[in-house]
Specification:
The complex is a heterodimer. By secondary structure, chain A is an all-alpha fold. Chain A is built from 22 helices and no strands. By secondary structure, chain B is mainly alpha-helical. Chain B has one domain. Classes of the chains: A mainly alpha, B mainly alpha.
């Protein structure tokens, strides 16, 4: 039998100098890259899209870096540690959107667009209304995602390093602002790549050390979990009791992935559709591998650290990966994994902010206020001001929502992306009869219903507002809000056809399929 | 690259067939992905006992199925990319020559 001791004490919360040193080394390296990138970042194409100079493989790694947030690293490991198999259902939901990006979106997006996904929604429709609606969809998605990340960062740093919450949020905000402001997409891409390598490397070492304890037999690990927490932990449990709940969440995660503005934007950093395609393949591989690692990390944390010890720090189990790293590799390894988790948040918020700034400068400033006439210098300047504004906003929101339950905000961001951004994008690519009015209605109805329904759902009504009997039964609104969005888009388009849009759809086909004329 | 040549290619049978083929492949793969994923979710929702069936001493069938689904998603992107590289790109190059 395996002899496993359960760690009862932890150095969590004490100032960990290993961690702080590694983190500062990361910041120093990324700042050096930002300085290097700043000399190559002058034009709009350089600021938003790294001059389309990133290779398919590099972009694949950067996409993985953008997507693997601390919420999935710490959150999913935590769910597996505390709930068992049910945690894996989240991982599956987060991965199945990627094949859809590949089949439906990556190539037409790259061929038709320039900097934002709204370029594609608007390519044959009337610019102004589409740009305003898409910008609202993008910015809402980004803001909710950003709040969750900032509050997560503050809390994480406080628990991990013993540094004050306020300072943690301010440091994250300022460092992230520097990357985007001075280095644009080029610096942001390399921050993502370095972070992805660190995270994948760190998680691999963690799994290696964990499996070592079980003689490299996954069966021994499962045995230990089964003996401690019962055989039910190894199969689906109570978490998805209501089938409609499971389907609604599944839809939000799957289609939301394909509607995240900061992910979609990355496809403009590669030279052509072929490289865009390659980057999805590479990203899906790395992300899938990462989720397999978090699955083992979660179970190993339950077996080695113990559920009680994990939940003592955090009821959702968010600290399980961190505690496991301490149990296996001591204070040094804890410091390393903690620094990686912090770097992870930093990279994700940089990607979000850049994408928000591009939406404000490219969609709103150029296409709404200047009727599509862009002068390079003016647009870059506006994008940089937007970066500063978003950075300050992110810090303020992080401070305002301190101590609040923001776990639902990631779910909300995915629900909005799935119900506002995804339907309009896919209908614009696929459906000839789609109209300007149809797109605007689809976006507005999708975003509004997602927000209203989540407030009425048990997720916010009961868990955040502490009221009784939520009026809307599902935990995630996606099933209803996506249906409403698609229905309103289709019905409005059929009621009032737009001949011009249909003609343009045909005319642009050479660009859509052959990539001729793509930027 | 004159406008007239654009029109010719746009109206050609080859081009129309290529566009149709692209979406047939894409939508078929999308359909398979949706079927497998939601099939698995429905199994999780309605037949937990089946998924608790042991395939090893302690390992349940749910675990290889769940992990298999993650790997399946990646393989699906691989299938598309190899089709696009071999078939789609070749035909795109042919058509581009005519422009």
């Amino acid at each position: 039998m395996l002899l496993l001791q359960t760690t009862s004490t932890s150095s969590l919360g004490e100032t960990n100098w290993v961690s702080i040193s590694i983190f500062f080394a990361f910041v120093a390296l990324t700042m050096y890259i930002t300085w290097w990138a700043s000399r190559k970042t002058k034009t709009t194409s350089e600021f938003y899209a790294a001059g389309r100079s990133i290779s398919g493989f590099q972009n694949g790694l950067a996409l993985a870096g953008d997507y693997m947030s601390a919420a999935s690293f710490l959150g999913i490991a935590g769910l597996v540690a505390t709930l068992g198999f049910d945690g894996l259902l989240y991982s599956i939901g987060f991965i199945v959107g990627w094949p859809l990006i590949m089949f439906l979106i990556a190539e037409p997006l790259r061929n038709l667009g320039k900097y934002t996904f709204a370029d594609v929604v608007a390519f044959r429709l009337k610019q102004k209304p589409i740009r305003i609606a898409s910008a609202i969809g993008s910015i809402l998605t980004i803001l909710f995602y950003l709040i969750a990340q900032m509050v997560g960062a503050g809390g994480l740093v406080e628990t991990l390093f013993g540094v004050d919450y306020t300072w943690a949020v301010i440091v994250v905000g300022i460092v992230m602002m520097c990357y985007v402001l001075f280095g644009g997409m080029l610096a942001t891409t390399w921050v993502q790549i370095i972070k992805a390598v660190l995270l994948l490397g760190g998680a691999t070492v963690l799994v290696f050390l964990a499996l070592w304890k079980f003689d490299f037999s996954i069966g021994n690990l499962f045995q230990s979990v089964s003996e401690k927490y019962g055989q039910e932990s190894l199969g689906p449990g109570k978490y998805f009791a209501n089938p409609l709940d499971a389907i609604s969440l599944g839809l939000a995660l799957m289609l939301g992935t394909a509607g995240l503005p900061h992910i979609l934007m990355r496809f403009y950093t590669v030279p052509d559709a072929k490289q865009a395609r390659k980057s999805v393949f590479v990203a899906t591989g790395f992300i899938g591998y990462f989720y397999l690692l978090t699955f083992v990390i979660g179970f190993a944390a339950a077996a080695i650290v113990g559920r009680e010890a994990i939940m003592k720090f955090d009821a959702q189990g968010n600290m399980s990966a961190i505690l496991l790293s301490e149990a296996l590799g001591g204070k040094f390894f804890l410091g390393f994994i903690a620094a990686v988790a912090f770097a992870t948040i930093l990279a994700v918020v940089a990607g979000l902010t850049l994408s928000g700034a591009s939406s404000i400068a490219h969609d709103l400033y150029v296409h709404v206020f200047r009727n599509g006439e862009s002068n390079e210098k003016g647009e870059v300047k506006v994008a940089k001001y937007s970066t500063i504004a978003l950075g300050i906003l992110a810090i303020l929101l992080g401070l305002i929502f301190k101590g609040q339950n923001v776990a639902f905000m990631v779910g909300l961001a995915f629900a909005i992306a799935a119900s506002a951004n995804f339907p309009s994008l896919i209908l614009s690519i696929l459906w000839k009869k789609f109209t300007t009015q149809g797109a605007v209605w689809s976006i507005v109805v999708g975003a509004t219903s997602a927000i209203v329904l989540i407030i009425l759902s048990p997720t916010v009504w009961e868990k955040v507002l502490h009221l009784k009997d939520a009026p809307f039964p599902l935990k995630n609104p996606a099933l209803v809000s996506i249906t409403l969005s698609v229905l309103s888009g289709v019905i409005v388009s059929l009621l009032k056809p737009e001949k011009e849009a249909q003609e343009k759809f045909e005319k642009e086909k050479i660009r859509t399929y052959l990539g001729v004329g793509a930027e | 690259m004159s406008d007239q040549k654009f029109q010719e290619v746009l109206k050609s049978e080859e081009f129309k067939r290529l566009a149709k083929k692209r979406w047939t492949v894409s939508l078929l793969l999308t359909f398979v992905m949706l079927l497998v994923y939601f099939g698995f979710l429905l199994l999780v929702a309605y037949d937990k006992e089946l998924l608790q069936t042991k395939v090893g001493e302690y390992t349940t069938i749910a675990i290889p199925l769940g992990i298999g689904l993650i790997i399946f998603a990646w393989i699906m992107t691989g299938i598309y990319i190899s089709w696009a590289n071999k078939v789609y790109d070749t035909e795109v190059e042919e058509l581009k020559k005519k422009l």
